[in-house]
Amino acid sequence: RQLEAELGTEISEQRFGQLREQLRFTGSLRYAEETAERHYRKAVGYLAQLEDSSARTALEEVAQFVTERKY
């Protein structure tokens, strides 16, 4: 809530870039990426226990997309 109050509901590209750089500088982005990767590996491990199906494949693809996307 504090962040929303400070930033409002919309931010400029310039401000977004500044915030992203602050997150990178503090190591927050790297931490988030590493955490996402751990969760991805764990999820894929659970999915591997399921019977091969289109649903399982879709879940694996969604997990991979969410983990690998860059903003």
Give the total of beta strands: 0
Question: How far from one another are the termini?
Answer: 22 Å
**Estimated share of beta-strand residues:** under 5%
* Gyration radius, in Å: 17 Å
The major sheet is characterized as: none
Amount of helix: over 70%
Shape: elongated
From N to C, what is the helix and strand string?
HHHH
Catalogue the unreliable spans.
none
Count of DSSP helices?
4
Can you give the mean pLDDT?
A: 88
Structural class: mainly alpha
Written overview of the protein:
With 71 residues, this protein is mainly α. The protein has helices spanning 2-7, 13-26, 28-47, 54-68.
What does this entry show, briefly?
By secondary structure, the protein is mainly α.
How is this fold's topology laid out?
Layout: H1 2-7, H2 13-26, H3 28-47, H4 54-68
Helix pairs in contact: 3-4
Brief descriptors of the model:
71 residues; 4 helices; single chain; mainly alpha; 0% strand
